[in-house]
Structures are given as structure tokens and as C-alpha cells.
Amino acid sequence: EEAGPGRRGERERPADEGPAERGPGAAFHMFVVMEDLLDKLKLLSYEEEALRRHNMRPLSRHYFALPTNPGEQFFMFCTLAAWLITKAGRPFEQPQECDDPNAVISNVLSELRSF
């Protein structure tokens, strides 16, 4: 018999299924992704180059996987995005906490599209 979604007892999965429908491990996938991100940031020396410059604490293994303080997490994301864009060779002004979040995201996305 052919393997695939047409086999008895199997069904095709819609793209919008939640983690519970994809299997028991899917709910933890975001934690694995965050750990991979942290490993890559450490390889780029983010602690020395990005965090010390802005007097910020290092990220925990699950910093972006759990919504603890959305304002702080957004600012950390913007700080890291600006640092990564600059590290890639493009000048990019570091966003401030008082900046309009929509404008900051628009600037980040615009810069990434130009890559």
C-alpha cells in the first residue's frame, strides 16, 4: 500500500490546526525554537555586543516562548533586530522604548525587505 494521508485512519491536517491537534510535542516546539535562537545569538556574541551596550540582562532559555512582560519583550526584540541588522552591515538606528511600536516594526520590516 502507498503511504500518505489517504491511508485508512489518517486524515489530512489543515494548516490552521492548533498544537493539540498536531501531537503532544507540538506545544513545546516554541521552547525548542527559542533555545536554538539563544544558541545562535550566543555564537554571534550578543551578550558582549548588544546587551552590555544597552545595560540589559541576558535572555533566559524561554524568554520569547512565554508571554511574561510584553512591553519588555518587544523592546528586547527590537534591540536584537536592530543589532542584527547593523551586524549584517546596514546602518540602523537603535529604537527607544518611547518610540511608536508600529513605526519600529515598520522600519525593521522595511530594512529586512531591502536585504
TrEMBL record:
Taxonomy of the source species: Eukaryota, Metazoa, Chordata, Craniata, Vertebrata
Keyword Transmembrane: no
Keywords of the record: Cell projection, Cilium
Region (Disordered) location: 1-24
A biological process term (GO) from this entry: intraciliary transport
Primary localization: other
Residue spans of biased composition, Basic and acidic residues class: 1-20
Subcellular location: Cell projection, Cilium
Protein name: Intraflagellar transport protein 57 homolog
Organism: Piprites chloris
Record PANTHER family: IFT57/HIPPI, INTRAFLAGELLAR TRANSPORT PROTEIN 57 HOMOLOG
GO cellular component: cilium; Golgi apparatus; intraciliary transport particle B; microtubule organizing center
Family: Belongs to the IFT57 family.
